[in-house]
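Submission sheet (multi-component)
Chains listed below:
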Amino acid sequence: MRIGIPLYDRFTALDAVGPYEVLSRVPGAQVHWLAAAPGPVRTDNDMLGLVADAAYEELPDPEIVLVPGGLGTRALLDDERILGWIRRAHETSEWTTSVCTGSLLLGAAGVLDGLDATSHWTELETLERFGARPSDQRVVEQGKVITAAGVSSGIDMALVLTTRIAGPEIAQMIQLGIEYDPQPPHDSGSRHKAPEEIVERLLALTRGSP
Amino acid sequence: MRIGIPLYDRFTALDAVGPYEVLSRVPGAQVHWLAAAPGPVRTDNDMLGLVADAAYEELPDPEIVLVPGGLGTRALLDDERILGWIRRAHETSEWTTSVCTGSLLLGAAGVLDGLDATSHWTELETLERFGARPSDQRVVEQGKVITAAGVSSGIDMALVLTTRIAGPEIAQMIQLGIEYDPQPPHDSGSRHKAPEEIVERLLALTRGSP
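Outcome: structure written.
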């Protein structure tokens, strides 16, 4: 089972590495890191490089497509190179998935038209441009298309997907293997739970980002 | 504030990338990826390479030391190159931290002698070799030394650390920024919560690993 993760300049590392850490443990799975060209691809803050092992076109037909988000999505909403790859891969994929603003790339590729979908909470309304119905669920399943909310939600999405493709026991084993028994010290991980002042401060920062 | 993350062959990606995604968002933070030599370092399953930007010795004195775990720790328990770096960095660090079996490297470097500490649940007892008292808490704080349990626990540890160094508001903003509102589809992320059969099956697999 081949899992294709397309990287691009200014992606968000945890969007990709969270689901990778789960899905790479599914028996028979092989994760393939793709980019416009093989080699290191830098994250949104330029503090980390992940190595792409192949160009997009070298893996046109993965069984699972997993598109991470990041600030870099904004520059790719009319980039036919990556959008064409997503569109082509989606034709034959068993599952087409995204994390965070990766859903904007699915949308721009035409994958989300008429579907419920989610994204990072600050970009939910942007999904409407692509004919999708924004949902504030953390993981949104629509047939073979699964979108996840911001950044860390990819871990939950990957456990849901693992349950679908390999059954609940394998998903539970992987959850135990990565000791995913979350205990954050605060309860501010969604706009509905964070103090209003925290939401406003983060929105102000987000509006100022390039 | 410089955060030094030492990589080595066969590390676990999420151990490092989870805390990176949190700590890189702390105002003034800069994450530095280190290894025996600059260049790509491959993960435990050989499916992913992260780029180390410098050799260990190029950053002898980060304010925060963060040691990830992985199958590769076993080969490093008497490797003076990385252990010497940890020992030296710990002398001047403000915080010395680990995720998963990264605590075995802290232990082998002499950092955990007489302290409570944690690790991946399958390796908790190994900590006793290094004079540490195994704890099954998810995040264990002992002065400036913080150890975290398996793989995904590094995200929680990093939010605890962020609260200490930057205050609860910044920690809450970062938690909201990465939308960390965990909703795993199962409740099997600790040996105390997973069905006994799942624990036994995973232990059997772990014993068979190289």
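Remark: The radius of gyration of chain B is 16 Å.
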